[in-house]
Amino acid sequence: MSTTPDLLTPRDPATTGVFADAAGYTAESEPRMDSTTDAVRSGVGGRLEPFKAEGVTLHHGDCREVLPQKADMVFTSPPYNMNLRIRGGEYCSRQIVDEFSTKYEGYSDNLPLEEYERLNDDALSLCLRECPLVFWNVQFLTGNKRALFRLIGKYADTLKDVIVWDKMVAQPAMAEGVMNSRWEAVLVFDRDNAISRQFSNGFKRGTMDNLWTIQRGKSEDESHGATFPVLLPSRAITGFSKAGATVLDPFMGTGTTAIAAIRAGRKFVGIERDPKYFKAAVERVKRELAQGVLPLSSGGGAEPVGEQLDAFVQSGAQRYNQ
Q1: Distance (Å, rounded) from C-alpha 135 to C-alpha 204?
Q2: What CATH number has the domain bearing residue 233?
Q3: In this predicted model, what pLDDT tens digit does every residue of 139-196 receive, in sequence order?
Q4: Phi, psi of 47 (to 5 degrees)
Q5: N or C: which end of the chain has fewer CB within 10 A?
């Protein structure tokens, strides 16, 4: 998500002196970069040098500036714009309160609706240019639902299916008359054959449901509270791609999709705008590669699905945490 300093808008009408740029980043909270520990700057828009190791490439920067990247599939989850609210029938930013509304450090998550829609539209179109299959994880909230509904309509001819992620437990809604949100959607876009519900790469008949019951776990990084469990991308990667395929995540965060791809024996390309999260993803990938976790595809037989896959992913996590 690019920073455009000349397009400054108030982050919260009730707050003075605090501004967010067009990408939602605030001048006061932009993470500082430590020149003694950061990778060498590439000199392109202030980006850090890409990280490359054993089939993994991580890019620092706005995904719309780094894309397109050639890959076999995408699994990603863009920001949810959860801090854009309704007041008096009009959109506005709610007050940013750490206890309730801060999912990212240094990102206010409150783009104007049109800009949020443009962010998703631009990123999705760039992904589909070089990737035939895209998994787009979203949660329908006040601050994004109209934009996402329009996006679904615009891409109706490439929307192949919808997976429901049941998180098993929902956080209580913050207002009277609002339903608790226990589920999220994974929109599946197929560039070449969306008219059919049949997928060309992956699982056997009767082995894959479109309701995935996966408990949401603890975030890997306390400064990034919007991460999904590694099992979520693992199910998509093993079910819908072949061994050795390349997986792309243009909103990489702290690298959960990267971990899932490594454990599945896939190559990975990730993009992350925030330097702190980029560095966290690099360190996380380094630790995962150092563990030498046996990839799913190394046995020569069929890859595990369902409960077998769950057990494999959790065993990898246990080794990682030892």
Answers
A1: 19
A2: 3.40.50.150
A3: 999 889 999 999 999 999 999 999 999 999 988 887 899 899 899 999 999 999 999 9
A4: -75, 150
A5: C
